[in-house]
Specification:
Shape of chain B: elongated
Number of strands of chain B: 0
Largest sheet of chain A: none
CATH class of chain B: Mainly Alpha
Number of domains of chain A: 1
Number of strands of chain A: 0
CATH topology of chain A: 3 helical TM bundles of succinate and fumarate reductases
Distance between the termini of chain B: 91 Å
CATH superfamily of chain A: Fumarate reductase/succinate dehydrogenase, transmembrane subunit
Largest interface: A-B, 37 and 37 residues
Radius of gyration of chain B: 26 Å
Oligomer: heterodimer
Helix content of chain B: 55-70%
Amino acid sequence: MSRSFRTPLGRIEGLGAAKAGTFHFWHQRITAVALVPLSVWFVASALAYVGAEQGAVAAFFAEPINAILMALFILAAVYHMSLGLQTIIEDYFHAEGLKLTLVVCVRFASWGIGAASLFALMKLALGTPA
Amino acid sequence: MDEAPYSPGPSARPVGRPQARPLSPHLQIYSWSVTMAASITHRATGMALSAGMALLAWWLIAAASGPEAYATFVGVAGHPAGQVVLFGLLWSLSFHLLNGIRHLAWDLGYGFKVPTARLTGALVYVFSLLTAAGAFAVGIMVRQGLGV
């Protein structure tokens, strides 16, 4: 009988030295599935407003269903983007410090873009009509 | 006659000197295949779409800031350079979306046979270009007030 040096917590987590399981993979897939209909909806909607006045765009996002779908699109896209860019960085940057720095930068930039987009969307959706 | 020069066998290693072992072949060694090109394009379009998310934020901020800021955005988007970028993003999204569905099918265990993977890869290129061109044409028609 070989003796196991793993702690009980380590054994039930079953994650090994990487300290991560299928979390990244699974979330990449969930956001991908969500983005299939959401991105088709977004492109179809945006195409209908090519060259339109600001008022028309504001009126579009004043509709609750459009604001909600747009918020979901932004959230799924930003999360999917941060996971994808992280994978690319981890594949091509091997110096630990640089890799960590870039992954953190990608997370900050992704959620920064997401927060700015969501705030602008809220203003459009909830703002008083001009 | 002279003795034949000593040559170490494949497993012999001079003591104290690291053997020049074969490295794993670099990307450039392989001949191009559709599946390989699709994989690389998937990453490239993913990066392009990430940059596109920043433009999306600009679009929303411009719309939320008022008519003047929005007119600036529309001006840049309507400029030929803006149109090239928008077409690039439309194609990137079409490609990433269709190839993403291909990836999801693989995740479920479908389409792994080599001829199938080659065919679906080629189809993704063809249909992503058709979709992007079609969507771009719709955009031009809407802009010219023709409707769809």
